[in-house]
């Protein structure tokens, strides 16, 4: 879908409609529409021809699109196809191809850092209610997502650390897990305490997913109807700035660990 979006943007930047693009490529307008809707793939040869017709001279960007077009990876998430809603699979694939991950958490500990008991409590509280089988599938999927090695930085508000989605023991176990994960070389955990000034720059959870190029980054936002993927260049610049500001007012990693350790002792 992201490849389809980028090809449509290139065509529109060249001020061509689908019929004109199809004529340049020697295909039907319907084929262009299907490609730009993510309903059909595109070969490397055709993609490079389209980029040439669209006067795109950014070789690094074109090569990144070719990689996306020719990737035939069948990831671990395919085992959940037909069992979980498509957005779960989209998120897994997005994270799989990420060069880095950044997360701002306000009310819940990030899913990639959750314990099984914490995840179960979160999914069990969803409305409409999920069946026990649906809850277990989501937990299995979340546990599989946690097997990542790319650089990951989480900025977590104190509210997310204090809210007990389950009981005291589960809350203590979650904080202990956070402490352990924060010691990993590829994971950085920062905390924003309630009494820290300057937090008006972030009002809700967001995940920033680094692509092969900055223009291919993606932001994931939670919404009442599900996750929203944001990939326009203007919006990406906004969220890059937002994350930098949130990071700037958070505690450094070592004081953050001390803060989490103190909260765990209170439990």
Characterization of this structure:
This protein has a 6-stranded mixed β-sheet with strand order 3-2-1-4-5-6, sandwiched between helices. The longest helix is centred in the last third of the chain and has 17 residues. It is elongated and about 70 Å long. It is of the alpha/beta class and 267 residues long.
What is the topological layout?
Layout lengths: L1 H12 L4 H8 L3 H8 L7 H10 L5 H12 L15 H11 L3 E6 L10 H9 L7 H14 L6 E6 H5 L5 H14 L5 E6 L13 E5 L7 E6 L2 E5 L2 H17 L3 H14 L1
Parallel strand pairs: 1-2, 2-3
Antiparallel strand pairs: 1-4, 4-5, 5-6
Q: In percent, how much strand structure appears in the residues?
A: 5-15%
The topology string of helices and strands comes to HHHHHHEHHEHHEEEEHH
Helix content: 40-55%
Count of alpha and pi helical runs: 12
Task: Tell me the structural class.
Answer: alpha/beta
* Total beta strands: 6
Radius of gyration (Å): 21 Å
Going across the major beta sheet, what is the strand order? 3-2-1-4-5-6
Mean pLDDT, as a whole number? 94
Unreliable residue runs: none
Oligomer category: single chain
Largest sheet: 6 strands, mixed
| Distance between the first and last residues' Cα | 45 Å
Rough shape?
Answer: elongated
Keywords:
about 270 residues; alpha/beta; 6-stranded mixed beta sheet; about 50% helix; elongated
């Amino acid at each position: 879908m992201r490849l389809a979006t980028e090809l449509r943007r290139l065509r529109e930047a060249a001020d061509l409609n689908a019929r004109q693009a199809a004529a340049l490529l020697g295909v039907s307008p319907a084929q262009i529409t299907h490609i730009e809707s993510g309903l059909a793939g595109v070969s490397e040869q055709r993609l490079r021809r389209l980029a040439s017709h669209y006067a795109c001279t950014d070789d690094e960007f074109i090569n990144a699109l070719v990689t996306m077009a020719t990737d035939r990876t069948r990831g671990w998430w395919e085992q959940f196809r037909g069992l979980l809603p498509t957005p779960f699979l989209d998120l897994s694939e997005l994270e799989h191809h990420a060069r880095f991950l950044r997360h701002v958490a306000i009310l819940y500990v990030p899913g990639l850092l959750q314990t099984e008991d914490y995840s179960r409590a979160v999914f069990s509280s969803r409305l409409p209610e999920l069946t026990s089988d649906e809850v277990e599938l989501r937990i299995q999927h979340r546990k599989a997502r946690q097997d990542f090695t790319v650089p990951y930085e989480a900025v977590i508000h104190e509210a997310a650390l204090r809210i007990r989605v389950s009981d005291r023991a589960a809350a203590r176990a979650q904080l202990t897990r956070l402490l352990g994960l924060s010691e990993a070389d590829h994971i950085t955990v920062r905390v924003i305490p309630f009494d820290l000034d300057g937090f008006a720059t972030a009002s809700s959870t967001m995940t920033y997913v680094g692509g092969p190029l900055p223009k291919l980054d993606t932001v994931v936002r939670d919404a009442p109807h599900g996750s929203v993927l944001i990939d326009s260049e203007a919006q990406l610049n906004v969220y890059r700035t937002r994350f930098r500001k949130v990071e700037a007012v958070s505690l450094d990693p070592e004081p953050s660990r001390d803060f989490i350790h103190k909260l765990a002792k209170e439990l």
